[in-house]
Amino acid sequence: MAYFLEKKEIHEANKTASFIVLIFIAIAAILAVFTSINANQVASLLGASGDYHKIATMYLRYLSIAFFPQMISVVLDGLVMNDGNPKYNFRVNMITLAMNVVLNMIFFVIIFKQGVIGLAVATLISHSYHLIADIYYLAYKSNTIKKIKMPTKNYQALKRVLYNGSSDFLGVFIEAIMIYVVNLSILKFLPNEYLEAYAASAVFTLFIAKIYLGSQYGLQPISSNLMGQEKYDELRQLFLFSVKRSALYALGFFYIILIPVARFGLPYFLDNPQLVNIAFILYLQVGFAIVLSNIGIQSSVFFTAINRPIESLVIAVIRTLILIPVCIYTMIWIFEFIGIVIGFLIPEILMTIGFMYYFKRLDLSRLKV
To answer: Which of 163, 190, 223 delimits the end of a domain?
Structure first.
């Protein structure tokens, strides 16, 4: 999108936006219906068993309703950012996040005590607000993306949209496979309760990964603009700046904010005090590994931003489909509990060393987009 806008091809940008929105509406609807109908099978695929399987099935069945506004709002976020208003996007995302956290507490434990159904309802409400806010912006405030409508037949544009978005789309399935292997490894070599502890700690470690994703997604329109202007040195410096600055934010967030928040919040997710302690240890260990995931996460998003989805997909496959699952399974098998953090650490260290070696020698001017 930003590539077209930088070239002043406004009509092409609006046509591409229409394709993107239409395609993702169809995908979101299919995923929502499919997950709701096959929640039992999806829960099994994710590694849930026993009582956890019943809870996961119920959660997925209700959560699938929230898939639609959640996926569409992510797509519209990109249009808002490409329109040149990342601050609006940032405010809406922060409000959505705060709403989700507060509503989770209200529906899950404090007032209604609806359990996992309450969590799904909270997600639906917060992301519905997100979707409405994005639609409002595009309808009344957008400067360039104004003509989202049913696109005319243009298979070349459709091919371009599908190609450029292939890495993000396939990345979702790669991530699901990785989660399945991690869960399966914990269940195979550790007591089942450790999976519950790991899942609770992941609620907090997720925020660290979101910092890296948010940093690179926020710069995505700028990266596309610089690629369109052939300002390759500035593009390289922008990526390095994002990596360094977001790493500083993640470290501060991890050590200063999330440690006390996790210590306070984990008892709301786990009834057993021993599991709370295990989950907190997992947060400290796995959280540090997630802090080191900076390069692995941002490099994949960076190549998508400059319309090079193949490199993005290769990074996702190496890191998420190969290194993390293999290391997690092997390390838990050998070292048991401590193997969880070792299994996450090794891939991130290897990815960081390997990518920085590759990036230093990469001539961005030779890339065709």
So the answer is: 163
